[in-house]
């Protein structure tokens, strides 16, 4: 038996004693399910799967048990990868070196809803946090388009979503405090706030494991979901930033041309053959937005209220339209995350970088961002296109690699102390990473 296998068996015995048999599994199907995420959305990554297979999976039921599992893995020298719902698209949650996978989805308690903040365990779904906030007359600053994602997963691997027009990405003050555990063999939970907390955001759990988090809330507004349509994409593009820059700030403004719109889930508010614009706006803006839409040759298709209307629109933003578009096509489709004024001002040039290119677009306060999809030809062609997009002033984030690509140097410096033996999600933190970074699409 290899040394690695011996250490895994020893860890299994330890975890059975610490957490109980209901929390520990070596079943092949459980290990396989815990070793995949949303990365098959990338044909480049999909061609390289499987990238790793868990030897052991645990299901802690609270923050303290997550910390116990991390500490046990560190003591036994076994790699440990922590995951939420596995909705990330870059392979962040794949255990490339095997070892222990910690599934946090049973550690989902909401601890406290206060004035301007909510505290919950890492496995709490974002949609439940939003519901708890609404019940208290508040709302999350932001939540991801995959609203069922966990709090820890969103902070470790996500970036932004509904609410980001006003508040930016999730490293810009959304996190008030974190409780984390390091891979030093201790189950001590360390409380960090402010700048110290930001060291653990968007680094895939390579510098420390988030077990509990406190994030920002704001007063609840009278949100309305508004669906509009235009004869073609140019109409949507002409008003997207105008609507996004209104006061009060919308929570979300998304748009697609007719080709992507027709692939979205059936809805009378998304008529076939037309470009779709969707927004979550303050009720006071309904007349203003209606006038903007109609002035640009469009029409408002529906105005809906309530949390379900907002969640439905959120699930039709960011990556989701591209996923629907992929499913509708007879060939492989890849996408890049893109940003910059050319998305609205010269969409033809942006889409022409790849044959058959189609853009999904989102408003921010600074400039539009989006997802550029096209038929997949080769990995080399994707990287050729990234250079061509940069040449016309379009920022690109590359969703076809799994390296930490945000605050890389700071994360590597932190991990030298918090993960001295390199056991936390190994294979994801490359101090020499030189590819496109997350900040390229802010």
Quick tags:
alpha+beta, 442 residues, 17 helices
Number of strands: 18
Number of helices: 17
Helix content percent band: 25-40%
Mean pLDDT: 96
The coarse overall form would be: globular
Cα gyration radius (Å): 22 Å
Low-confidence stretches: none
Strand arrangement within the widest β-sheet reads 14-11-13-12-16-17-15-18
The secondary-structure class comes to alpha+beta
Percentage of β-strand residues: 15-25%
Would you write up a description of this structure?
This protein has 442 residues and is of the alpha+beta class. The protein contains 17 helices and 18 strands. An 8-stranded antiparallel sheet has the order 14-11-13-12-16-17-15-18, with helices on both faces. Strand 8 and strand 9 form a beta hairpin. Helix 1 packs antiparallel against helix 4. The longest helix is centred in the first third of the chain and has 17 residues. The radius of gyration is 22 Å and the shape is globular. The mean pLDDT is 96.
Structure described in brief:
With about 450 residues, the chain is α+β, with helices and mostly antiparallel strands. The protein is about 35% helix and about 20% strand. The strands form 3 sheets. An 8-stranded antiparallel sheet has the order 14-11-13-12-16-17-15-18, with helices on both faces. Strands 5, 6, 7, 8, 9 and 10 form a 6-stranded antiparallel sheet that branches.
């Amino acid at each position: 038996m290899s040394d690695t296998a011996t250490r895994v068996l020893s860890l299994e015995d330890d975890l059975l004693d610490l957490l109980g048999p209901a929390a520990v599994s070596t079943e092949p199907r459980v290990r396989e399910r815990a070793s995949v995420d949303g990365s098959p959305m990338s044909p480049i990554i999909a061609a390289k799967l499987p990238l790793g297979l868990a030897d052991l999976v645990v299901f802690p039921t609270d923050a303290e048990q997550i910390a116990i599992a991390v500490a046990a893995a560190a003591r036994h020298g076994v790699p440990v990868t922590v995951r939420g719902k596995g909705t990330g698209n870059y392979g962040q949650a794949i255990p490339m070196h095997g070892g222990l996978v910690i599934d946090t989805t049973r550690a989902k308690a909401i601890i406290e809803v206060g004035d301007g903040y909510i505290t919950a365990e890492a496995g709490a779904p974002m949609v439940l946090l939003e519901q708890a906030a609404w019940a208290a007359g508040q709302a999350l600053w932001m939540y991801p388009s995959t609203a069922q994602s966990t709090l820890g997963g969103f902070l470790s691997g996500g970036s932004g979503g509904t609410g980001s027009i006003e508040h930016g990405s999730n490293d810009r003050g959304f996190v008030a405090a974190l409780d984390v555990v390091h891979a030093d063999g201790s189950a001590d939970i360390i409380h960090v706030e402010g700048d110290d907390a930001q060291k653990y955001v968007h680094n895939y759990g390579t510098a420390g494991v988030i077990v509990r988090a406190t994030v920002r809330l704001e007063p609840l507004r009278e949100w309305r979901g508004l669906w509009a349509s235009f004869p073609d994409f140019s109409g949507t593009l002409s008003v997207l930033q105008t609507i996004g820059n209104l006061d009060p700030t919308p929570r979300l403004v998304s748009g697609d041309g007719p080709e992507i719109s027709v692939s979205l889930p059936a809805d009378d508010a998304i008529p076939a053959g037309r470009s779709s614009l969707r927004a979550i706006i303050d009720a006071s803006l309904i007349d203003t937005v209606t006038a903007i839409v109609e002035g640009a040759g469009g029409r408002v298709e529906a105005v809906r209220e309530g949390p379900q209307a907002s969640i439905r629109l959120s699930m039709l933003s960011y990556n989701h339209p591209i996923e629907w578009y992929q499913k509708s096509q007879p060939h492989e489709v890849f996408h890049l995350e893109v940003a910059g004024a050319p998305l609205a001002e010269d969409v033809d040039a942006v889409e022409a970088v790849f044959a058959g290119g189609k853009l999904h677009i989102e408003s921010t306060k600074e400039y539009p961002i989006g997802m550029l999809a096209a038929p997949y030809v080769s990995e080399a062609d994707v990287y050729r296109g990234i250079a061509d997009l940069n040449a016309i002033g379009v920022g690109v984030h590359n969703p076809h690699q799994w390296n930490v690509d945000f605050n890389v140097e700071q994360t590597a410096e932190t991990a030298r102390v918090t993960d001295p033996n390199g056991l936390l999600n190994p294979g994801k933190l490359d101090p020499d990473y030189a590819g496109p970074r997350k900040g390229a699409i802010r």
